[in-house]
Design a protein that fits this description.
The complex is a heterodimer of chains A (369) and B (358). Chain A is α/β, with parallel strands linked by helices. Chain A contains 16 helices and 11 strands. The chains are: A alpha/beta (369), B alpha+beta (358). At the A-B interface, helix 2, helix 3, helix 6 and helix 16 of A face helix 2, helix 9 and strand 14 of B.
Amino acid sequence: MPVESGLPEFLSGYRDVERVKRVIDLIQQRTRQPWTLMEICGGQTHAIMQYGLDQLLPDEIELVHGPGCPVCVTSLALIDQGLWIAQQPDVIFTSFGDMLRVPGSNGDLFSVRAAGGQVRVVYSPMDAVKIAVANPDKRVVFFAIGFETTAPANAMAVIQAEKLGLKNFSILPANVLVPPAMHAILSSPGNRIQGFLAAGHVCAVMGYWEYPPIAERYQVPMAVTGFEPVDLLSGIYQTIDMLESGRVAVENAYPRAVTFEGNQAAQKLIFQVFEPVDRNWRGIGTIPNSGYGLRKAYQAFDAALHFDTGNIQTAESSICIAGQVLQGTKKPFECPAFGTLCTPQNPLGAPMVSSEGACAAYYLYKRGS
Amino acid sequence: MEQDQKQPRQVQGLSCPLPHTHTETVVIGHGSGGSMTQDLIRSIFQSQIGNEILAEGNDAARLQLFSHGEQLAVSTDSHVVSPLFFPGGDIGRLAVSGTVNDVAMLGAHPAFLTAGFILEEGFPMADLNRIIKSIADTCREAGVQIIAGDTKVVEKGKADGIYINTAGLGLIPEGRKIGGQFAKPGDAVLISGTLGEHSIAVLEARGELGFESGIQSDVAPLNHMLEDLLAAVPDVHVLRDPTRGGLATSLNEIACQSQVSIHLTEGAIPVQPNVRIACEMLGFDPLYLANEGKVIIILPEEHVELALNIVRASPYGKYAARIGRISEENPGRVLLHTAFGTTRLLSMLAGEILPRIC
C-alpha cells in the first residue's frame, strides 16, 4: 500500500511543493505595490488558511475574505422559517450538514432534532426526494441553500419530484448568487477591493460570462480561481499581473474545470425551475435579484406555500460583526466576541459555524496568532 | 527568514481556553469526543462527581491500592455504533478492543472485563449470537476474560438494537508512569499506523458514502503490541488511542494535560489513499476521524528507531511512523507544519463532524 503517495495525480499535482514555490516566486517578482484582493468563496478562504498560503505571499498582498459561504449569508428569517418547519410533527426536514449548527433566533437544527424533530443530513437534494418517496405520510422539506453551485441539483430535485408526482415534497428556496454580491461589495462606500478571485465551483456551473461587465464597470480585474494550492496561487498571480500592468479583464486561472459559457445543461435546468428574486443576506441586507425563487410553474414545491410560518420574530446577536466580516471590511480578529463568546461550538454568527465561514477558518487555523 | 516572522506569533502561558456552551438540552455534538464533550464533562460531571483520579483525564484511571508495587488501571466505555456490523468488525469486537486499549494506554496489562448489555425487544437472536462470538474471539486474542455481566431488555423503540458497556481492569507494573500528562519537550511523537479507516468503514456501512471504498475498520486490541513495545522500551511517556475526535483531538488533549506544544509534520502522517480520497469527496479531514486500532506513542527521541521497529513488527503497526515532536513554547497548542513550509494551528474537534455543502 503506497501510504506516502496518497493522492491521485489530478490532486497531488496541484499540491506539489515545487510548483507552489515556482508560482510564489512569480508572485514575488511581479508584485511592486500593495494590493487588496478578495477571494469570493469560503472554500477558498479555508484552503488558504489550511495550507497557510497567506504566509507565503509578499507583505504587499492582502487577502480579504468574501461572502461566499452559503450558510453564513442565509438570512435569519429564512433560518427561523426552516427551524419552525422542522419542528412540525409530520415533517422530515432535510439539509446539507453545515446548516445544522447555524444559530437561528432560538437554537439551531441540532436542538430541534434533540427536541424530537426529524432533521436529516443529506449529501444531495436527490436524497431528500428519495426520503419523500419512502415516507408518503410525512411532509419532506429540503433547505435549498447554496450559491449557483448547488442550484442545478436543487432544480433537478424539484423536476424529479414533479415527474414522480410527489405531493409531500417541497424546498425552502434559499440559493444566492455571486454577481449581485460583487456589485454590492464594489459599490459600497468603504470598498477596498482592487481585484477578485472568482469562485471556481460557481463558474464551473455558470461560466464567467456575467463577470466582464462588472470588471469593466468597477475597473476591477478578476481571475476565476480553483481551490488547490497551485490553483489559488495561480489565480492570485494572474490578478496581480493584471493589476500591475493596469489591465482590467476577467481571466480564467481554472481552465481544467471552467469555460466561459459554463455548464449549459446545468444552467438550462436552473432557469427552467428558478428565477432571480431579491434576497436578504445575513449581515449585509437585501440585494436585488441576488437569489433564486421558484418559477410559477413549480410553486407547488415551495415550502413557504405549504407552511404558514406566520410572524416569526427574528433576533440577531448584537455583538456579532458577521456583516462586516462577510463584506470584507473587518477581519474576524476584530470582533470582540471572537474566540471567547463566539466559538464553533457556540457560534453567535454563521461565519463561525460553517466549514466555509471566515471566522471558523481563523478560529481553526490561526487563533492566537 | 521572512517565513519565520509570518508563522503564528507565540502566545506564552495560554492554557486551552474552553468557552462555555449554553445548550439547554443534550445535542449529538456532546458525544463527538471533541470540545463539546469536554465542556459537558467539565460542567456537569466533574463539577459534581469529580475527584483527583478522574481529574487526571486519561483513558483509564490509575489506582494505588497498596502503599507500593503494582497499580490498578480501570476504564469503562459504552458502545453504540450503528450499524452493528461494518467492514472489518462489529460492535462486539469494538466493545472488547475499546476497553482493552483504554486500559493498555496506561501501560497496564488488561486482564478482566465486565460487560453490560442493553437489548431492544425484537432484536434478532442470530445477531446477538454473532456479536457474542465476536466478543469471545476478541477476548481470546487480547488474552482477557469477561468476569461479570448484566443484561437488560427495553421495549421496542427505546434503544437501537443493542448497546454494550464494558469495563476493564489491568495491572500496571511497578515503576511504569505513562499518561497524557507526561509528555516532555524534546520527545518524539509516533503513530502506529494509517488514520481514519474506522470512521470511513462505518460511514460506508451506513450507506452514506455513495461509493465503495473497500476500506476496513482498524478495530483491534493493541495490548500485545504495546506490551512488546514497553518490554523493549520502558521509557515511554504517553500512550493514547485516537478514537472519537481523531488524532487532532487526542493531541490537543495531551498538549493541554502536559502543558507542552506538539509540532506535527503533515507529510509524515500516514493515511491510506482510499481514506484520503473519501475525505476529499466528503470534505472530511482524516486527522479528525475516529480510529479503533491505533495508538499515539510519545517517548524520548533516542528510542524512536527501536520503538518503530517493534511496533512495525505487529500486524497492527505495519505503517507506524514518526509524525512530530514535543516543544515547550506555546503550551496547549498543536501546530501543523505543511510541506510548503507554512504552519497552522490544529484545533480540537468542536462538535459533530459535518460534511460540507459543495
